[in-house]
Amino acid sequence: MKLNLGHVKSLAGLLKIIGLVVGLIAASLGASAFINSPYNKSCGDDGVTLPPRSNSTGSTLPGDITTTTLRTREPVTVTQPGKFQTEATTSPPGGNNSTALPPTEKTDCEMAPVLWMERFQISITWITVIVSAALLICYILSEDFEYNKIFKGVNFGFHFVGCIFLIISALFLAFAAIEIDNKICSDERFTDSKEDCQKFKQKMSAAGFTLLQAVLYAVISVRVIGKKLYEEV
User: Fold this and answer.
1) Which of 125, 129, 203, 214 is the most buried (most CB within 10 A)?
2) Does residue 223 sit in helix, strand or coil?
3) Are residues 95 and 121 in the same domain?
4) Does 167 lie in the same domain as 124?
5) For residue 76, what are the β-bridge partners?
6) Pick from 28, 51, 27, 24: which is nearest to 40 by CA?
7) Are the C-beta atoms of 91 and 73 separated by less than 8 Å?
8) 213, exposed or middle or buried, with CB in 10 Å at 0-12, 13-18, 19+?
9) Whole domain around residue 98: which residue ranges?
10) What's the pLDDT tens digit per position in 13-42?
11) Could you tell me the pTM of the whole model?
């Protein structure tokens, strides 16, 4: 069987190969950021905290924060061996030495329900990569696919619809990264805030590559329909 290697060297083939590589990068970055994200590891989709996270003092901080921590400003006096007593009232929340959180403070897992947006991006990018690779292999195996009307329709429909879904998934991932990782990136309660910052950058990079993949798919679909109209004229 003679392979249609000429398609690989054509503009359409090069666009498909570039789109495949870009899609693979976007899918890998998105999946890696999702799997290794400290937030995703500590929070469930229903907002339930799994393992407790650590604050800046080294003590564990549960995801559901419902209490207020108060500190005394006055020194502690010893009344009996092994017992301690404070002589002053506690300082109000918000004082200079207070690290208190208001009783109405929301859980740090409140944005967990938007994690499906990250999964959406991962699913769409991997699906497009697999289907795109299958289409490219079909083109290489036989040049008959280039002249098959049904296959042309499938090729156009996949890249056109894929472009739309890729744009949506890129926006979803960017929104999730901004709402989750960017917010807790500057939260001093967590010792892994720097890691959250890195995941934010990684997710935004994945969103950027996903958007680039969508642009390539748009170019491919426009080229397919343009070539068809040219042949009919």
Assistant:
1) 125
2) helix
3) no
4) yes
5) 86
6) 51
7) yes
8) buried
9) 66-105
10) 788 889 999 999 999 999 998 888 777 777
11) 0.66
| pLDDT at position 216 | 94
Residue pair 187/109 in contact (Cβ under 8 Å)? The answer is: no
User: Which tokens go with 103?
Assistant: 């009783």
CA atoms in the 13 A half-sphere facing the CB of 31: 12
User: For the chain, what is the domain count?
Assistant: 2
Q: Is residue 56 part of a domain?
A: no
Same domain, 127 and 188: yes
Distance between CA atoms of residues 165 and 122, nearest Å: 12
Q: Which of 51, 188, 211 is nearest to 121 (CA)?
A: 211
Given its phi and psi angles, is residue 10 left (phi above 0), alpha (psi -120 to 50 degrees) or beta?
beta
DSSP-derived letter for residue 43 is B
Helix boundaries (H) for the chain: 6-9, 11-36, 38-42, 115-141, 149-176, 182-185, 193-232
How open is the CA angle 65-66-70, to the nearest 5 degrees?
A: 95
Per-residue tokens: 84: 């301690």
Residue 58 lies inside a defined structural domain of this protein: no
**Residue that has been written with the tokens 């060297």 in this structure:** 9
> Angle at the Cα of 56 (from 51 to 61), degrees rounded to 5?
30
